[in-house]
Structure formats: C-alpha cells, structure tokens
Write a structure and sequence with these properties.
about 180 residues; mainly alpha; 2 domains; two-stranded antiparallel ribbon; 4 helices
C-alpha cells in the first residue's frame, strides 16, 4: 500500500521536541489515511450487501404479488354490476380470451372481419396459411436459385468442352502435335 502524507507543523509543544512532534504528526496522518480507506471499503461492502438483500426482497415480493394476482378469482360484470361470468383464476381468463382471439373471423389481410362478402378465415387458419406461404416462397426461391446455378454451371462446362474440341480442330492442334485425330 502506498501512502502519500502531508505533515503540517503549526506549533511544537513545550514538553515535546521536534522529533516527537513530527513522529506524532506522521502517526496521526497514517491513521487518518488508513481509517479513510477502511471506511470507504466498509461503506462499499455495506452498500453492496444492502443492494443484494433489497433486490432479493423486491424480487420475492414481486413474485408473490404476481402469483397472488394469477390465482385470484376474476368476475366480469355488466354495466349494472351483475356478474356475467366468473373465472377461478387469471390463467383461465387469459386462455379463454386467447381461444376467442384465435377463433375470430378475419379477412385475407388478417384484419378482424364481420362482413358477409369476400374471403373469410378463422385467425388460426390464416396464421398457419401465411406461415406456409412464407415457407413455400422461401423454399421455391432457394430451389430456383440452386437449380439455375447448377444449370448455368452445366451449360458452361458443356460449352467449354464443345468449344475447346471445335477450336482444336480449327487450329489443327492435333496435326501440330502429331496426334491422331478423334472421330
């Protein structure tokens, strides 16, 4: 540990000499410096511990509140305060609302539809159909790209071979190399 100390001598006590005064001031300065460092470390540890404990308590309370909310009975009432429907817990309400949402009639764009004209779908079938179309489009696009690249490569290889043979005949390379001609 490195300590930088400043010692300020304002006065020298009559009973002490200069050495004793300097010695006492150095000791006091070292004690103050160490005490300051210890206080900072202790304060940091205390704050960290408090943060952990408080956060754990907050999380526990939040979980309890959410759990209590999800287990709570829910009553749906009309404008007069009469109970229309009672759900034993929030999960039951959420499931029913989700089922109704997925069973709603939608148009070809997926918007809720109450009319009688045009194409009508249940939302669940619309979502499945859209996912299948997306998958089919991606699959078809990738397949066409792959096949096109393979055809291009095959044509290139064939033309290179054919043009190479024709060029060999035109330039009479076989004669120059004294090779027998292929028929």
């Amino acid at each position: 540990m490195k300590l930088n100390l400043e010692v300020e001598l304002d006065w020298i006590d009559e009973d002490m000499n200069l050495d004793d005064t300097v010695k006492q001031n150095v000791i006091d300065a070292v004690v103050r410096k160490i005490q300051s460092n210890v206080e900072l470390q202790v304060e940091k540890k205390i704050n960290d511990t408090i943060d952990k404990v408080v956060l754990a308590k907050i999380n526990k309370m939040t979980e309890k509140l959410f759990s209590d909310f999800m287990k709570r009975e829910i009553s749906i009432t009309d404008g007069y305060g009469d109970k229309i429907k009672v759900y034993k817990n929030t999960t039951e309400l959420i499931k029913e609302r989700f089922d109704k949402f997925m069973e709603q009639t939608v148009d070809e764009k997926g918007n809720t539809y109450e009319g009688t004209y045009g194409n009508k779908y249940k939302r669940i079938y619309f979502i499945i159909d859209e996912q299948l179309k997306k998958f089919a489009n991606e699959f078809t696009t990738n397949a066409v790209k792959t096949v096109s690249e393979e055809i291009k490569q095959h044509v290139k290889d064939g033309l290179t071979t054919k043009l190479g043979n024709e060029l060999m005949k035109v330039l009479k390379v076989n004669e120059m190399l004294q090779l027998p001609e292929k028929k």
